[in-house]
Write a structure and sequence with these properties.
- There is one protein chain.
- It is built from six helices and three strands.
- Helix 3 runs parallel beside helix 6.
- The radius of gyration is 15 Å and the shape is globular.
- Helix 1 links the parallel strand 1 and strand 2.
- With 124 residues, it is mainly alpha-helical.
- It has a three-stranded parallel sheet with strand order 2-1-3, with helices on one face.
- It comes from Schleiferilactobacillus perolens DSM 12744.
- This is DUF2399 domain-containing protein.
C-alpha cells in the first residue's frame, strides 16, 4: 500500500452505515470510508495513519449523539496531520450547535453536555 497510487488527497469517514450507503448511492465517485463497526481497531487506525502520511486528509461525519461526538473526538486524536478544521469541515461546531438547538431533543441538561462536548472537540 505504501507505493500504490492514490486517486484522491481527501476522504470522508462516515460513522453511520446508513449514511454511508445513502451517500455512496448518490455520490458513487466520492472517496468514502465507513467507520462503523470497526471500533478503531489497530488495522483501521494503521490504514488511516498510512494514508495520512501519504497526504490524504480526512473529514468526518458522525451521529450527533454523545457517543457519536466521542467517536469523532477519538477519530481526531488518531490523526497526526489533518487539521481539526478539515476533520470538522462537514460538521463544524457552530453548525452542529445550530442543528442541535433546532432539531435536538428538548432536554436542557443533555443539550448543555452535548454542546460542551462539541465545543471541546474544536478546542473552544
Amino acid at each position: 500500500m505504501l507505493d500504490f497510487p492514490l486517486s484522491t488527497s481527501k476522504a470522508v469517514v462516515i460513522e453511520n452505515n446508513g449514511i454511508f450507503a445513502l451517500l455512496h448511492q448518490h455520490h458513487p465517485d466520492w472517496p468514502l470510508i465507513v467507520q462503523s463497526g470497526n471500533d478503531f481497531n489497530p488495522a483501521y487506525v494503521q490504514l488511516l495513519q498510512q494514508l495520512e502520511k501519504r497526504g490524504v486528509q480526512f473529514t468526518y461525519i458522525g451521529d450527533l449523539d454523545s457517543r457519536g461526538i466521542q467517536m469523532a473526538d477519538h477519530f481526531y486524536t488518531l490523526l497526526q496531520q489533518t487539521p481539526i478544521e478539515t476533520v470538522t469541515a462537514l460538521q463544524d461546531p457552530k453548525t452542529v450547535a445550530r442543528w442541535v438547538s433546532l432539531y435536538g431533543k428538548k432536554d436542557a441538561q443533555r443539550t448543555r453536555k452535548l454542546l460542551s462536548n462539541i465545543l471541546s472537540i474544536n478546542g473552544n
